[in-house]
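Exam revision sheet. Question 4 asks you to relate a sequence to its structure. Input first:
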Amino acid sequence: MEKKVRQAGVIGAGVMGAAIAAQLANVGIKTVLLDIVPAELSVEDKRKGLTEESVEFRSSLAAKGIQRAKNSRPASFYLPEYANRITIGNLKDDLERLQYVDWIIEAVVERIEIKKSVFQQLEPFISADTMITSNTSGISVAALCEGRTEIFRQNFAITHFFNPPRYMKLLEIIPGPETRPQVLERLSRVSEKILGKGVVVGKDTPNFIANRIGVFSMFVVVQAMQELEVTEAHLRERSDERMGVP
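Answer key, C-alpha cells:
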C-alpha cells in the first residue's frame, strides 16, 4: 500500500514557499516551514527586547511568510485557522524536524548555487521514503542533482507550482535522470488527488513546458509588432479608444 503524505516540509518562506505551505495545510497535511536566520536584528526586534538567540527572531522570516499568506488576496488559506497546521522554524535550529516528513519542497530563490547549498543541508534528514522536490520555473533537474547522494537523486524531482498555488491548477513535474518511477507516480497522485492539481509531466528542457510556450508567445507578439510597425503611440491610441477617452 502506498504511504500517505501526512507531513511535509517547505524550505523558503517567500511568496511561493509560504503559499505552497498554506495549500498543503489546506488539505490537511501538517507542514514545517523553514527559512534562514535573519542577518541582524531589526529596530523592531530591538524594541521588543529580542536578541540574536531569541526563537522569535531566529524564525521570524518563516513567521512573516505565514502572516503574508494569511493577509494575501486572493486568500491563500481556506480558513485562517488552517495556518495552525504549519510549524515555523529556521534552517539553523530546526532541520531535524524534517526527518519526520514525507515530502520536502524547496522553494528558495532561483539561484542554482543557493538551491544546491540547501540540498546539502537537507541530505542527512532524507530517508529512502522521503520525496524531495524543487519549485523552480526552469533550472535543470539534472544540474540540481549534481553531487547529491543516490537516495537523494532517486527521490528527487521538480514540482513547478504556479502563483497563486491555491488557485492555479497547473503543476509541472519534471523527473530527474534517476528519479524512481514509484516516486514520480506518488508525486503525481498526491498532487492530483490531494492538492487538486492538473499534473503535466515534462522533460528536463530549458524552462520546461509552460514558460517555453509563454516566452515563444511573447516573441511572436514582439515580431508581429515589428512587422506591423506598431509604436507606443498606436498602443496608447487603441487603449484610449477602449477606455472611451476622446
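Marking note for examiners. The chain has two domains: 7-206, 209-246.
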